[in-house]
Amino acid sequence: MDGGTEFRLWAPSAPSIQLALGDGAGKPADFLAMEKDAGGWWRVVTDRVRPGDAYGFRLESGLVVPDPASRRQVGDVHSLSVLVDPTDYEWKTAGWNGRAWEESVFYELHTGTFSPSGDFAGIVEKLDYLKDTGITAIELLPVAEFGGRRGWGYDGVLLYCPHDVYGGEAGLKRLVDAAHERGLMVFLDVVYNHFGPDGNYIGSYAPEFFHEEIHTPWGAAIAYDEQPVRDFMIDNALFWLEEYRIDGLRLDAIDSIKDTTDTPLVKELAARVRETFPGRHVHITTEDDRNITWHIERANGQPILVSGEWNDDFHHTAHVVATHEEEGYYADYSRKSVAQMAKALATGFVFQGNHSQHRGREVGVSSGHLPPTAFVNFLQNHDQIGNRAFGDRLADLASRRVVECLQAILLLSPQIPLIFMGEEFGATDPFCFFTDFDGELGAAVREGRRAEFKKFAAFHDEDARKLIPDPNAETTFEASKLDWSAIQRPTYRRRLEMVKRLLDKRQRLIVPLLRGELPGGCGEHHVSDDTLAFVVAWHLKDGAVLHLFANLDDEPWALPSDVVTGDLTCGELLHAHPKGAEEALKTGVLPGPSVVFRLEGQKLLTGIAR
Question: pLDDT by residue (tens digit) across 125-138?
Fold first, then answer.
């Protein structure tokens, strides 16, 4: 502002707050008194801190803390903050307005393990490769500054500050600019349900920011009934979308946001996003264990609030079919996983108000009225790989033929697909859970991680649990880095070429049929008893019907005579895997395991359920 910079800090019960001015070494050198207004905000205007200078806040106890809305730090989360001029970056792609939601093909990646350099610049080097593969949107695991140098990012404490190890605010802006130059969207995973355990100083000067009496898996709940707290988080979402020109946000575990107000935070946040950026394609996705739909409802074919919900149900059914695992939450999917997969593909969720044995209660609401694009499907993601004891990928757990069939189902079905880094070439590198804590916190994280697996048969024995990698060991982080040399080997190259063909077909032949308003309840499915085979038909734009024939068993499947009513040779063959599956289907038999996608002008099937 004219005359200098205004510094503000919300600390309604603090007896005093001073602005700490840093010296050339980034250490506190002088202090200015701040004045508190009736709303609990401490303020001061000064011309003694210029862009590039260090600053912080000194509490009555003498503790100097960083700005909770810091854009850059001198060092780590415990250091002073740095004043940043947010207008000093000159965008090359200032006219970029994003891409339509139905064009989204997500590539989820972790900045630190995606490239050899482990930073934003390393991602830039791979953007041409991703575009050539058919990816349209990269999705970054959280990048907000967290304790230590390495971690997944879900322990962020400075939510406005890109992690310095990754390249900081300048590096992130260069990445977004470079992606937009190539027509790629950039999504960011953001965490509004908790702060990390290392470097969160807010409670030391604003205990009102938290509800100590309301517990979450990570500690005290955030007090979203306090307007400054609510504004802090909503402004954070707008900040990434405006200042960094991010194309969309993934809201982590919104079911763990303990909001005591009448208006859920997600509802207000999404509405503000829609109002603030009416001229851009800006999208929001969510993770939610409740299988709710109020946030992903449509009006005239367009999302009212949230564009898409991560559909864990689809993942779980696919994983059980491929691996036959039945422990933990997979117990809900072990008996009828193929039938459940067909239901998820046709109507959204598996659990739509029915009882979950694993959770001991009824879960979900009806979702069949929603278009398939209201759901983000995946076979793997950071959680589903990284929350395994050894970070195993699906390629190490299931047969190659079944995985390739599932990959075709993922990429050619009308839901929005997401793949995890390296999945496109069948990477087998583990992606483990890793952190960078030491002392008591490091020990607690290590032992807590191992204790999580006590309930699994393979880890009932304490000695077996000791084999689980230590999250704080640098070797655990290094083992999780992608091995890019694998692409040079024939098996991996073959998988990559298959994925490229599938994504090319998706954009050319399927995406145009997803534009605008799709008919309600557009999916139908049929599953034969005692088989691992099913058929799904989706009624898309302009009367087109997309058919999926899938047999994930080893034995061939004869389509029941009361199911097929049309000529299976008409229309357009989109994909058949393996070779010969389409010819066999013409005779009414689908070999196993195999999938066939056909696009017709009419439905070829009868006796299948919506």
Answer: 999 999 999 999 99
